[in-house]
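Final paragraph of the annual report: two paired records, presented back to back.
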Amino acid sequence: MTREVTFESLRRFEPMSDKHIIAVGHASLDYVYRIDAFPSSPTKMRAKSHVASGGGMAANASAALARLGGNVSLWARIGDDAAGGLIRHQLRAAGVGTSHVRAFDGVSSATAAVIVDMRGERLVISEDDHEFPLIADWLPLSDVADAAVVMSDLTWLEGTLAVFAEARAQGVPTVLDIDLDSGALLKHVIGLTDYAIFSAPAFRSFLPDGSDEERLNRLVQSGIRHAGVTLGSKGYLWSAHGNRTGFEPAFEVDVVDTTGAGDAFHGAFAWSVAQGLDDANCVRNASAVAAMSCTGLGARAALPDAEQLASFLAKAR
């Protein structure tokens, strides 16, 4: 039986510092190498610098959220291997709760090689073990009732469905990060989503017809509270319940590495929702954090705290 979505039933958001935020999805280990420029043909090169950095969309979003002062826990799957140990260590160092990051025997943790040129453009080569158990019956769904926000990157459909269904039943808002190759999974989750945030390629793949504004309006008319699309250096376009629309231009920064900028956007957006902010301020905070994250090498090196975010926004105005 399909449950009708009504916006009147959604919780009125108030700042809730004692409430936690739950992120469901991907955690990996990134090996990031910075080079002068990408070669025109295969060759051997020496990196100018490199870091081993925590990665994964949900994990990076959680790190951004924790850096802002949010109480966040990641619900994710890793392998019982050396990379998994580093992933867990770096999450803890970032202030992310890892009690429900589960290590599985016989599978390899996700890793990625990230090559970044001096303009901040990147090549990402990633690998996930396809033997990860899909079942989500080990997740503590009773914790969802006490959450301020639940978010997911849609890389683990079974986990996302279980948590989002419980969030909807408890009136807890849900934030979904929708990237390319999510289309086949999205149809299962979109009806449980309050804030749907697309990358530009995923947006135009999932909704191929009409202008960006028309497509966003269709999503909102279907029952989503807020639908938006990240447009990289061009900014963020959004539509929300109540005939509200907006466009937030991208902030100008000295770009070092764009890896994880979208993840930082989603983490800051969820943090802002938990603070009870309106759509426009959620978007502005998220856009600023995403821009600031691009000023360091790796997805987490330049994530700002709340004070640094406030200072950045004050100067931007």
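The closing record of the year follows.
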Amino acid sequence: MEVTDIKNEGLSHELKIIVPAEDVETKLKAKLEEVSGKVSIPGFRPGKVPPSIIRQRYGEAVRGEVLEMAVGEAMASALKERDLQPAMQPKVEIQKFEDGEELEFIVKVDVLPEIDPVDFKTVEVEKLKVAVDEEQIEKSLADMAENMAGSEPISGKRKSKTGDIVVLDFEGKVGGEPFDGGKASDFHLTLGSNQFVPGFEDQLLGLTAGSDVSVKVTMPDEYPAENLAGKEAIFECTVKEIREKKEAELNDEFAKNLGLESLDALRTQMRERTESEYSSVCREKTKRALLDKLDNLHQFELPGSMVGSEYDSIWQQYLEAKKNHPENAEDDEVENPEKFYRNVAERRVRLGLLLAAVGQRNNIDVSAEEVNRALIAEAQRHPGQEKKIIEMYRENNQAMASIRAPLFEDKVVDFILEMANVSEREVTLDELKKEIEAEQMAAAEKSQPKKKVSTKKKAAPKKKAAPKKKTPAKKTARSAKKDKNDE
């Protein structure tokens, strides 16, 4: 085998490899001999077909396999001989492959860079700790009680007021024609919740059960259904019942309904859960700060193919976001988006290579058990489809890699944090929120994007409100508005 260096510039290499004709012929004969033992040709006993007939009938069919085998073996040998570690799958260009002649091909490959990590003991990182006080716990319990509050019909002929739940039938029309999502029966609407389009709930105040009312509203200009946006709509409503919330009492009975022994046990659980949530947010903040420092402290040449592949993936997400939300095209714009997302790709590749090198040098790995636990957790996010989700992941190597990658990253980050100079600072929840908001604003000003792709920071956890019912059309409008204002 003859190997010639065509290009050797930094991490980029090109090799011309020539495999002698006799080596190719040896592989071809071996493959044809393997085939001859499996095929049946009339007039010949199994395994006794002359090689010339086997070659005539099956020569072209096995040439592709022989080519793949010869290229693979020759390329692996050449890369090993030159101690080149590919960053990605090398590109192969066949120059010559004729029957009875030598095989000639070009290999283009980017190799992994030499990485010399800094002394992690010199890296200073701040770790925040949120002090959870009793006032926060009591507020969380009160919110839980409010969200779990039941309701009962009002007594007497009192008229509806803000905070009441009206049970109604309604049908909406625009220009006298009904529209999708504009009709419902026995719908429970909390007045003052701003669940419907502006002005709808206000017109249901001061009514008694049994009332019929025509509610006139103007559909929002940003309404996703273009035939309804900005149009005048009339909803014919029948108020069937008016209910008022029945506050849930915070006592042992309340806790027992949740499966706990007492209110004190519920408080303990709430405190542990809150501390866990805040601890998770603080850890993510520390991790981001560490990765920022590692990115700034390490400058080494990056494989062009890796950066290009990562950039293409990010750019595709960016284009899809613009395509899926054309009404928000201006908000999605970034000043010099190609440069911005190229920088994002370079950062990801740099940190990925660094963490991989640290993990490899320190024998950090993710066990099959850890991957399996994460896979089960992912499947449980899709109730009723757990088995299907698990099978889908296990049949797709790339999907399984997406499960393993964050586990590996977190283990390497923890390893580095154990050696780093970590200082701890206690903050209140409000202070944590303000610091995260300040980080986001600083990042936005630095990069100058109005809306970023896959670089969103996690906010501090908020107490979730009770889910609200929505008509299909209204739900779509709220979702679109959220997408627009999310960042």
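The chain has three domains: 2-110, 122-131+263-456, 149-252. This concludes the annual technical report; the extension proposal builds directly on these records.
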